[in-house]
Design a protein that fits this description.
Number of helices of chain A: 8
Strand content of chain A: 15-25%
Helix content of chain A: 25-40%
Number of domains of chain A: 2
CATH class of the largest domain in chain A: Alpha Beta
Structural class of chain A: alpha/beta
Shape of chain A: elongated
Largest interface: A-B, 83 and 83 residues
CATH topology of the largest domain in chain A: Cobalt-precorrin-4 Transmethylase, domain 1
Largest sheet of chain A: 5 strands, parallel
Strand order of the largest sheet of chain A: 3-2-4-1-5
Oligomer: homodimer
Distance between the termini of chain A: 57 Å
CATH superfamily of the largest domain in chain A: Tetrapyrrole methylase, N-terminal domain
Radius of gyration of chain A: 20 Å
CATH architecture of the largest domain in chain A: 3-Layer(aba) Sandwich
Order of helices and strands of chain A: EHEHEHEHEHEHEHEEEH
């Protein structure tokens, strides 16, 4: 049976609507990787509520008349709670403003969108979700490797540093034919590597750490699972891609670093 | 150690370069969900080699002078092989053309990009990868549900119909705290459901099937794992999202269909 969508969509889908909230993905940070729709919404929003990770180059695309509010919860100071953000969206929309809630990457992964959607629905505020390029794809593009490969990687698993380890209730299994992408793997890659090795992943499982993907200052470090903990720390935000799908880039790195082919 | 990227990038990153290949994600089908960069590349390419799933509305954005070639391998007739596609990219780039290899969604997931990248690298053709919105995020936006949820879904697993079942060498485990996204789940959802139930996922595990996400004719069907096989087939391309993260939309659907709250 076809479903009546839960969201009460704004009435003019092709233009921004007053009194509506748009949960918009800002992509990985490069303004060129905004969607056409996200760009148009940014340029016509009356209020933008954005995360810390959205760079100035993207916020600069908004109209000078737009009220831009950083509702980031990072930087140590948790002065803004999730409840505050929910309330801000609802207050501005209820006042007839066209509100863009701008989240880095895609709004529907690792971004507490579930709570924001529930709050908007409960308040009967019209909302629409506009996808964005999530960091995993920007990082994969940066290293030039497919996340899947017909011969070696048939699944892709996205998790966060907090949930990638076996401290979690349901640890991920040691599937060698999956590419693992860990958002915000944190600084203790040694611990993560030890856990994955203990779960049965091999020592030479290829790993790439990409920080600031698709942004100025992008850094790429390639290594193996055994040596992951020894890699110099990279600047946050970073992302770990591990799996046989990235073996070529890891081997190339090894060759560049040592002058010896990894497959020799 | 920082990595020398494997790809030899075109010399003018902000403009299209003659003699280069751009592996570009076309997104889910809505021209509004192209990235700004993808749109610019489409408008300035001399040759576009596209998959079957890229709709006319997107191809219409190319310049009238552009040579547009459908290199899709679907529709039963496998007249074009992967090797043919690789050769076409290399031949056009070597002739000094600016080539866009346009793939639906994001180029780096379930799209045989690994083989195309390897061919370009072997031929020493400059290439660049431009991410796109993959169908999973368009489908999640369509149903208005986050793929992750702090209380119930800390991982997301992407697979294809071909690999989602336990016929695969390494079956996925019955992780209840993961959202499973199956691209092209195929018509035999009954078999898939039986396998997941046998692996230990619960009968009431919420499921949503979205076909033609972000395109005209978009359809959404919500059900449970136990009833997944009974759902009327949806038109391809479709995508299955299963997990507690989509329980609200599934419950809402149940309520709409029966007049009874699923939680009553």
């Amino acid at each position: 049976m076809a479903l009546t969508p839960r969201s009460r969509k704004p009435e003019q889908p092709s233009r921004i609507s007053a009194g509506s909230v748009y949960l918009v993905g800002a992509g990985p940070g490069d303004p060129d990787l905004l969607t056409v729709k996200a760009l148009r919404l940014l340029q016509s929003a009356q209020v933008i509520l954005h995360d810390d990770l959205v760079p100035k180059a993207i916020l600069a695309l908004a109209s000078p008349a737009t009220e831009i509010v950083n509702v980031g919860k990072r930087c140590g100071t948790k002065t803004i709670t999730q409840e505050d953000i929910n309330a801000l969206m609802i207050v501005h929309a209820s006042a007839g403003k066209a509100v863009v809630r701008l989240k880095s990457g895609d709004p529907l992964i690792f971004g507490r969108a579930a709570e924001e959607i529930a709050a908007l629905a409960a308040a009967d505020v019209p909302y629409e979700i506009v996808p964005g390029i999530t960091a995993a794809f920007a990082a994969a593009a940066a290293i030039g490797c497919s996340l899947t490969d017909r011969s070696s990687a048939s699944n892709v698993i996205f998790s966060t540093g907090h949930h990638a380890s076996s401290h979690n209730q349901s640890p991920l299994p040691a599937l060698e034919d999956a590419t693992r992408v860990v958002y915000m793997p944190g600084r203790d890659l040694h611990l993560l590597a030890q856990e994955w090795l203990a779960e049965g992943l091999p020592h030479d499982f290829p790993c790439a750490v990409v920080s600031h993907a698709a942004q100025p200052g992008q850094q790429i470090r390639c290594t193996t699972l055994a040596a992951l903990g020894d890699a110099a720390p990279t600047a946050a935000p970073s992302l770990l891609i591990a799996g046989w799908a990235v073996r070529d880039i890891a081997a190339k790195h090894h060759e560049a670093a040592t002058g010896v082919s990894a497959t020799a």
